[in-house]
Amino acid sequence: MGENAATKNNQHHQVFDVSIDVLAQNGSKCFDDDGRLKRSGTLWTASAHIITAVIGSGVLSLAWAIAQLGWIAGPTVMFLFSFVGFYCSSLLADCYRTGDPVSGNRNYTYMDAVRSILGGAKFKACGFIQYLNLFGIAVGYTIAASISMTAIKRSNCFHASGDKNPCHMSTTPYMLLFGITEIVFSQIPDFDQIWWLSIVAAVMSFTYSSIGLALGIAKVAARGTLRGSLTGISMGADVTQTQKMWRSFQALGNIAFAYSFSVILIEIQDTVKSPPSESKTMKKATFISVSVTTIFYMLCGCMGYAAFGDLAPGNLLTGFGFYHPYWLLDIANAAIVIHLVGAYQVFCQPIFAFVEKKAAKKWPESGFITKEFPIPIPGLGSFNLNLFRLVWRTMFVMLTTIISMLLPFFNDVVGLLGALGFWPLTVYFPVEMYIKQRRIPKWSTRWMCLQMLSISCLIISIAAAAGSVAGVALDLKSYKPFKATA
After folding, report:
1. How many C-beta atoms surround the C-beta of residue 371 within 10 A?
2. Residues 246/8, Cβ–Cβ less than 8 Å
3. What is the 3-state secondary structure (H, E, C) of 178-247?
4. pLDDT at residue 220 greater than cutoff 70
5. What pLDDT, on the 0 to 100 scale, is given for residue 394?
6. Model confidence at 457: pLDDT above 60
7. Which residue stretches, if any, does this entry annotate as coiled coil (predicted)?
């Protein structure tokens, strides 16, 4: 995808080289220096985009993460992750243009930036990690959606039985239902045709996060005391020292997942107008959005921990820490499902586009791959059906659904995704691009500090991945595939 985009961009520059110069000389206000229509994004639109992209289902596991670390380490670790996320995002903002930060060539995507600044093997490694991470997110969203659908049915079952029936049920049918829904939506060809789905998803994410926060505050207010301890879950008959260590490591992954947003920042920066320079606007937008997000995360995580203490569930709205009001829980979980339907498509579209562009480039004469068949839809015009898109995207959704059924562990998957994505995409590549872009001398004080930051985050990511894998291994001991109960 990045390679094709870069090729298109080069072609675009060739076409507009002369006209850009003329427009600049005439002081035209219609086009930017790359020949595109003037960008209109502002500090506030960029901040809104980042906040919308960051706040998602990962917020629901933060109460559990703080419970593993305690009142001292939990908020401290969350603050440190927010600082690292902000700092590395600031470095990345300087990589939007290659060379001069004001007049250098633009990089339209994260992959374009890695390709133009680092190139070679690092570009390929970045692509592999990015697409693997997106695939993992698709699996995680399938798991989360099925758990929320099950939670709706369970809450109504509890209500009908007067909270006496445990209402155990399988998540497998709901994973299949979510998969079928995604097969249908996956046939929407491009990003520009799912903007409405993104808006709905963003509204839903704020809805369920706010409900979770409100329920936590209400529970603490009703009890009049704060639960939890300074050091987190204490060791006892149910938690050994080794388990506590692995859980603490996994908690790092859960928090890291909440702050793994750098991969979409270049795309957001490409919407910002100038002057002032895009990097200045983006740094301010990142500071505002990370501050708002961190406050929201702190409130949700800390109030969830204060409400349940050591018993904080892995998913605040589906772990049944809350039972009442059941109708509000139904609304929250329905919002989660709607959000994840849209978010699944947003995160999978880059994979879809990459595979389809590669196939079209390799077999341009194949009707199976390139031909579109218009299908009339009464009242909605026509829909262009592509057989390759139908077959390939259906197989992709089926694969993510099957893996979700085999490993339906929301908390563990979130921790693993955070561990695998945070260091390379949020820290390593931005640091390496910044060093090369600014030509920072090797072994200089600044170079050493940046490398120490990267190595420290690598160690944390390895520990978080190990904790999440240990969590999966522990869950698999008592799990029977396709017969899981909630």
Report:
1. 12
2. no
3. HHHHHHHHCCCCCHHHCHHHHHHHHHHHHHHHHHHHHHHHHHHHHHCCCCCCCCCCCCCCCCCHHHHHHH
4. yes
5. 92
6. yes
7. none
- Average pLDDT in the 359-384 region? 77
Query: Residue 146 has which token pair?
Result: 């099925």
pLDDT of residue 399: 92
Determine contact, residues 186/388, Cβ cutoff 8 Å.
no
Are the C-beta atoms of residues 453 and 427 closer than 8 Å to each other? yes
Q: Pick from 315, 204, 311: which is nearest to 254 by CA?
A: 315
CA 202 to centroid of chain Cα atoms: 12
> Residue 338 has which token pair?
């709607």
Are 249 and 467 contacting, i.e. CB atoms less than 8 angstroms apart? yes
For residues 318-333, average pLDDT = 72
Residue-level pLDDT at 483 = 58
**Residue 198 backbone phi and psi in degrees, to 5:** -65, -40
**pLDDT for 14:** 38
DSSP-derived 3-state class of residue 372: coil
- pTM for this structure? 0.77
Burial 253-290 (b: 16+ CB within 10 A, else e): bbbbbbbbbbbbbbbbbbebebeebbbbbbbbbbebbb
Look-up of token digits 């691009």: 433
Whether the predicted pLDDT of 112 surpasses 70 = yes
**Residue 92 pLDDT exceeds 80:** yes
Per-position DSSP letters for 445-481, written without gaps between them: HHHHHHHHHHHHHHHHHHHHHHHHHHHHHHHHTT--T
Domains of the chain listed by start with CATH number:
1-38 (no CATH), 39-476 (1.20.1740)
The whole-angstrom separation of Cα 170 and Cα 60 is 21
pLDDT of the residue at 445? 92
> For 452, what's the count of Cα atoms within 13 Å in the CB-facing half-sphere?
7
Beta pairing class for 381-385 and 373-377: antiparallel
Taking the CA of residue 351 as centre, how many other CA atoms within 13 Å lie in the half-sphere pointing to its CB?
23
Q: What are phi and psi of 188, to 5 degrees?
A: -65, 120
* 284-60-254-294 Cα dihedral, nearest 10 degrees: 20
Q: What is the pLDDT of residue 368?
A: 80
